[in-house]
Amino acid sequence: MSDRGADTIAAVATAPGRGAVGILRLSGPQAFTVATSLCGTLPPPRQAALRVFRDELGQRCDQGLVLCFAAPHSYTGEDVVELQGHGGPAVLDLLLRSACAHGARIARPGEFSERAFLNDKLDLAQAEAVADLIDAHSRAAVLAANRSLEGEFSRRIGTLAAQLLDLRVFVEGALDFSDEDIDWLSEPQLAESMELASTALDLLLSRAGQGRRLREGMVIAIAGRPNVGKSTLLNRLAGSDAAIVSDVPGTTRDTLREHLVLDGLPLTVIDTAGLRQTDDPVEAEGVRRAWQTLEQAELILFIADDRSGLTSEDLALLAQLPPAREVLRVFNKCDLSGNPDGIVENSEHRALRISAAQGAGLDALCRELHAAAGLLDAGEGLFSARARHLDALQQTRLHLHDARIRLYARQAVELAAEDLRLAHDALGTITGRVDSEHLLGAVFSRFCIGK
Ligand SMILES: Nc1nc2c(ncn2[C@@H]2O[C@H](COP(=O)(O)OP(=O)(O)O)[C@@H](O)[C@H]2O)c(=O)[nH]1
Ligand SMILES: [Mg+2]
User: Fold this and answer.
1) What own/partner pairs with CB < 8 Å and gap ≥ 24 does 88-91 have?
2) H-type helices in 85-221, by residue range?
3) From CA 422, how far away is CA 219, in angstroms rounded?
4) What 3-state class would DSSP assign to 111?
5) Which residues line ligand 1 (CB under 6 A)?
6) At a CB cut-off of 8 Å and minimum separation 6, what does 220 contact?
7) Low-confidence ranges of the chain (pLDDT < 70)
8) Residue 2: predicted pLDDT
């Protein structure tokens, strides 16, 4: 960042639109000077004071509270001022212009958090958790974002990074002293540390996967023959009459998408046209789109009528579903068949009985969906994570795997050392703290064999 710390930035920190309170936030070396131009003398840091706010022409435009935070004890680590006035768009716009007329510039999106990161107030994963907290749409997502923000995820990354660092120190040491008698690579400590690191990595990957699910949710499609109750189920899950339900087969032709949060799990549920051969060109297009949609789904709810069970037509459709998709068989209309709702025991595949019309068996369905998302046993330990983090963890795993193979084969120890460096760096991108001097320091402090 070339302009790091040089500019003083300003932005309206509250949501756009009208509200009781609106906040203008300033950060940077000139924050106190700019604020003084807007509202006169400033109170001491961390004490609120009532002031009149003036626009760039010196006209009174609002009155409110002023709060100052002196560097480095602020969100960004710089001098920060908050002007808390009335939440009208025109008032806040006047204040923002006035701040800019007195030397501030309008902040880019995320720039306050970026500065917090550059000033070591937050690491990258924590800065991302701030955004996750703001975007959270359920209590579970709020709690998970807080765990990341508070450093839970970063600490786990840190522990794993320390394990990788130990490995690197060991292997690079073996390289440095390869002409000596000791056979470093046959030390049991090495194999043990390798195992430990890769187990910790797998655990972290699975946890991060759950955290990502909680943030990004899952796409599920409802499929099956016409009239089995697909649209009724969508409406039941969405809690609204999103889809037209009728006893005329072939009603649903467009593909409907509903975004909903089911017990903390964000879902995109897609209702499709009933899968069947048809001469109606419009319905045929719906069926074509339905097949296309199934390709995008991570989980397919295959609905059948519980009165008939799986018919030969159902079996033929099941066989045509896109491969490598998770499929949950759902037998609907159990109110008509008289069978009990819930999980179908002794079934070869995962299956359950529901009545979409009556709402029976939906708790079991909800549990199955959480299980499919990997969230069932996640409990309280969940932290928020994103695709970027998963990519980095997967990269780390690949490099660690390569290093293991090379070390076990006792070949190319230099390359193994390089693999470990890449693994360590990939991991470091999650928190944004990759630092090669760190490694040098560790190597020299631990290997002080007067050479
Ligand atoms: N008794 C009963 N009727 C249902 C149930 N689910 C759907 N239906 C009825 O079955 C018919 C077809 O439902 P719909 O949702 O349009 O089926 P789709 O073609 O698969 O989308 C409608 O008349 C629904 O009211 C159920 O669980 N119990
Ligand atoms: Mg339908």
Assistant:
1) 88/18, 88/22, 89/16, 89/17, 89/18, 91/22, 91/61, 91/62
2) 89-101, 111-118, 124-135, 139-149, 152-176, 188-216
3) 33
4) helix
5) 226-232, 245-247, 251-252, 274, 332-333, 335-336, 355-358
6) 267, 268, 269, 270, 297, 298, 299, 300, 301, 369
7) 1-5, 177-185, 377-380, 433-451
8) 39
Asked if residues 135 and 212 have their Cβ atoms less than 8 Å apart, the reply is: no
Ligand 2 center to 255 CA (angstroms): 9
Domains annotated for the chain, with CATH where assigned, are: 9-121 (3.30.1360.120), 147-212+384-446 (1.20.120.430), 218-372 (3.40.50.300)
> DSSP label at 381?
G
Residue 448 Cα distances to 20, 234, 328, 435, 442, angstroms? 63, 67, 60, 21, 10
Q: What is the pLDDT of residue 89?
A: 92
Q: What is the Cα–Cα distance from 130 to 152, expressed in whole angstroms?
A: 13
**Locate tokens 């604020």: which residue?**
35
Beginning with the edge strand found earlier in the chain, give each strand of the sheet holding 49-54 in spatial order: 49-54, 60-69, 80-87, 19-27, 9-12, 105-106
The bound ligand whose nearest atom lies closest to the alpha carbon of 226 is 1
Q: Which atom of ligand 1 lies nearest, measured to the CA of 234?
A: 15
Query: How many whole angstroms from 197 Cα to the centroid of ligand 1?
Result: 52
Distance of CA 19 to the CA centre of its chain: 29
Residue 295 half-sphere exposure, CB side, CA atoms within 13 Å?
Answer: 4
The DSSP symbol for 199 reads H
